[in-house]
Amino acid sequence: MNVSLAAVDEFEAPGLGIFDFPPLWDGAPYWLNKPVVMAGVGVVLVCALAWGAFARPKLVPRGLQNAGEYTYEFVRDQIARPFLGKDAERWMPLLLSMFALILLWNFMGVVPGIQFPVNSHIEFPVIFALVVYVLKIYLGIRHQGLGGYFKNMMFPPGLPKPLAIALFAPLELLYNFVTAPFTHAVRLFANMFAGHLLLAFFSAVGFWFLIAHPTVPGVSIGILSVAMAVAMTALEIFIQFLQAFLFTMLAAMFIGGSLHPEH
């Protein structure tokens, strides 16, 4: 038992250091690290899969084309059409690319040998959120006019003006220009960050008590940790898909709100 307690005392849980990657080689730019390379590989892979699926479409889809069409229909029917209506097809290239790339970057967190979700680095979700945010404002002003954009945002029909001026308008300004883009990025980042940290913790505990410092009392802890790591991996795959879906859905909702403020 004392040996087991000593092993527990020596164990160091994974911390923020697992998200810190140095440059790929000495003298390389500070930003050229593993997550950046993984992000670039993800972009190339999504383009290659799209080319393989749709470059030579057949009447009866099979293989990559079949998977690509299922993905397209899912994004179109579950994300684009509910928020964009008749404009859904026009925005499908953006929404489909966004969904596929975010999903692939998320899934990298459970791929053996890679095991790092790109979106657990805040700069990647921020870039996506900023693109959607700028697009949302641009489309709103273009389709509604500058005055109409702020009027529709701050003074909805039927709301008494004193109440709108005193309460609703300031809250809407705060939501549209601060809260919405912030939460859009942080929701994706926080889920990928927390999920990767939990997987790393349970995997490290299992490795420590079963391989690095095996003891009779520690075996039960190691086995339990491995079981938790397996269960958390299954849960993480679901969350990775869900977060890609939610991020893309919110993008469609923001674009739709700028194009059709009456809805």
Automatic annotation (TrEMBL):
The membrane-spanning stretches of this chain are: 36-55, 91-110, 122-141, 162-182, 241-259
* Keywords of the record: ATP synthesis, Cell membrane, CF(0), Hydrogen ion transport, Ion transport, Membrane, Transmembrane, Transmembrane helix, Transport
- GO MF annotations, alphabetized: proton-transporting ATP synthase activity, rotational mechanism
What topology does the record note for this protein and the membrane? Multi-pass membrane protein
Return any one Pfam family short name.
ATP-synt_A
Q: Name one GO cellular component term.
A: plasma membrane
Localisation per UniProt entry: Cell membrane; Membrane
- Provide the function of this protein: Key component of the proton channel; it plays a direct role in the translocation of protons across the membrane.
| Family recorded in the similarity comment | Belongs to the ATPase A chain family.
Q: What is this protein called?
A: ATP synthase subunit a
Give the taxonomic lineage as stored in the record.
Bacteria, Bacillati, Actinomycetota, Actinomycetes, Streptosporangiales
